[in-house]
Write a structure and sequence with these properties.
about 475 residues; alpha+beta; Uridine Diphospho-n-acetylenolpyruvylglucosamine Reductase, domain 3; Alpha-Beta Plaits; globular; Hydroxyacid dehydrogenase; FAD; FAD binding
């Protein structure tokens, strides 16, 4: 890279805003799954939107590609540079301001580099609730959540990150700033520019700030673990609970018996709260700003399905410790599968009404075409998002892993699309699914996305090689 550009970047962000040492760059150039590792001449760490805009103007003038990066916790390689050594990493990890908390409008305005956990804490300190919650919340940033339209465990009630954002501030590839930080729930004045940038994975511009929705802080929460003999029964239970509990149904997580056994074997202290064997399990949570009667509601809502035989067993957490143990069992799946083997992961979404049929078809197809490989099937069944993973042995050779991954992806994703689903639900496309898009997206969809990309980023400098 031209040393003059480095000098100009330092003038914008200060010497402490550049990471030039190769060893110090290590956390930035490799994704946390260690699947993608690249090189960069410099990591640029601006402190505010003005500095981001100045950096983008310099990069455009010099024709330098830019890889925006938040917490670098993504699952699809969307924030990792390539190995050319030509791409600048623009990290937002110094942009950590909580700009405003408005308890009347129920909004919080934050810099894009604020950790998700810090947004949650700021809302809690103000007596409010920010509902986005996922495993990496202590290290992921709200900008990355917006760039990938992250999901998590509360989508059933509150929606994806897209549904939680009212306004954005975005630096465009040419350095101009779109100031769309409006905390409006109604704004019918043209195209939805906010929605355009959410989920764009840094390929159209850099999100530097956001106005997010806040909600009343839940004062009551009750958690239950359910065992059933089929996914059909679990989906039927979901429908029953939605009708009975309404929006108080906050989470409805599903996992197979294999998942529960895997966590019990590989995660210390994790144990199923139910006796006996069950083909399918569900973790259910109700929450409300008014706690009265919440436990009784869940107990009554499960009583009928138990008596009818729709579900085989259920346990309601008697205290916070038991509730945390149930969540530990669900959240331990990712850790357990890392210890047990090498997972070929599928982050898929389907209409809830088609989940059971898909699982039956996919289980049969994987068993037929890839016999002997265990399936780690779990997910946010309340919003139709499955993590349908297939576990390979820890010692599988790399070449065989690559070959099997391609075959399994085709096997699973073909069935997903046939059932009207998506091959990426909450993890983003990044590098992982980029080349598969053309197989599963229509020509019209691909053309529209490419037209938008060319219009906003004609020099193709924003996060090249990702998404498109």
């Amino acid at each position: 890279m031209d040393s003059e550009l480095i000098r100009r970047l330092a003038h914008v962000v200060g010497d402490d805003g550049l990471v030039l040492d190769e060893a110090a760059q290590a956390p930035y150039v490799e994704d946390w799954l260690r699947k993608w590792r690249g090189r960069t001449p410099v990591v640029v760490r601006p402190r505010n939107t003005t500095e981001v805009a100045a950096v983008m103007r310099l990069c455009r003038q010099s024709g330098t590609p830019v890889v925006p990066q938040g917490g670098n916790t993504g699952m699809s390689g969307g924030a990792a540079p390539d190995d050319s050594g030509a791409q600048v990493i623009l990290s937002l990890n110094r942009m950590k301001r909580i700009r405003e908390v408005d308890t009347v409008n129920n909004t919080i305005t934050v810099d894009a580099g604020v950790l998700l956990a810090d947004v949650q804490n700021a809302a809690r300190d103000a007596g409010r609730h920010f509902p986005l919650s996922l495993g990496a919340e202590g290290s992921c940033t709200i900008g990355g959540n917006l760039a990938t339209n992250a999901g998590g465990t509360a989508v059933l009630r509150y929606g994806n990150t897209r549904d939680l954002a009212l306004g954005l501030e975005v630096v465009l590839p040419d350095g101009r700033v779109w100031s769309g930080l409006r905390g409006l729930r109604k704004d019918n004045t043209g195209y939805d520019l906010r929605g355009l940038f959410i989920g764009s994975e840094g390929t159209l511009g850099i999100i530097t700030g956001a106005v997010l929705k806040l909600y009343p802080r839940p004062q009551g929460r009750v958690t239950a673990w359910v065992g059933a003999e089929s996914c059909d029964a679990v989906v039927s239970l979901l429908t029953r609970l939605q009708a009975r509990c309404g929006e108080r149904l906050t989470a409805f997580e599903m996992m197979s018996a294999y998942c529960v056994g895997l966590v019990s074997r590989h995660v210390s202290g994790a144990a199923c709260p139910l006796a006996g064997e069950h083909a399918c399990h569900a973790l259910i949570e109700l929450s409300d700003a008014a706690p009265e009667g919440l436990a009784e509601l869940l107990e009554q809502s499960l009583a009928g399905p138990l008596e009818e035989g729709l579900i085989a067993d259920a346990a309601i957490a008697a205290n916070e410790s038991q509730a945390k143990a149930m969540w530990r069992l669900r959240e331990g799946i990712s850790q357990a599968q890392v210890r047990a083997g090498k997972a070929v992961k599928h982050d898929i979404a389907l209409p809830i009404s088609r989940l059971s049929a898909f699982i039956k078809e996919a289980d049969a197809a994987v068993a037929r075409e890839f016999p002997g490989l265990p399936i780690v099937n779990f997910g946010h069944v309340g919003d139709g998002n499955l993590h349908y993973n297939v576990l390979l042995p820890l010692d599988v050779p790399h070449e065989e892993y690559v070959h099997l991954t391609a075959g399994l992806n085709r096997c699973v994703h073909d069935l997903v699309v046939q059932r009207g689903g998506s091959i990426s639900a909450e993890h983003g496309v990044g590098q992982l699914r980029r080349d598969e898009l053309r197989r599963y997206k229509s020509t019209v969809e691909m053309d529209l996305m490419l037209m938008i990309k060319r219009a906003l980023d004609p020099d193709q400098l924003m996060n090249p090689g990702k998404l498109l």
